[in-house]
Amino acid sequence: MTSGHEQHPFKWTPGAEKRHATLAENRDHGTEVETLCGTTIVVDRGELAWFWFTCEPCNVAAHEIAGVPMPGDRPVTVEGETVGAR
């Protein structure tokens, strides 16, 4: 059974005290992986790792790969009025 949405090639992976995105297949704790921002991190599956901030360059790259605009990148309609993007 499928979930109804397409999977993206990247996966969110904690390491270097941020949540990064990577194309690496093996994301086991302690594994060294290259991230979408170009940083090499050691995967950290510690208890608090998922509470870290998201790496902004990885987030931008992940949105580009997914074909989804970053929040605020397109005009939206609020109460019948169009307000601009940032």
Automatic annotation (TrEMBL):
InterPro entries: Zf-HC3. It comes from the Bacteria. Pfam families: zf-HC3. This is Zinc finger protein. It comes from Saccharopolyspora cebuensis.
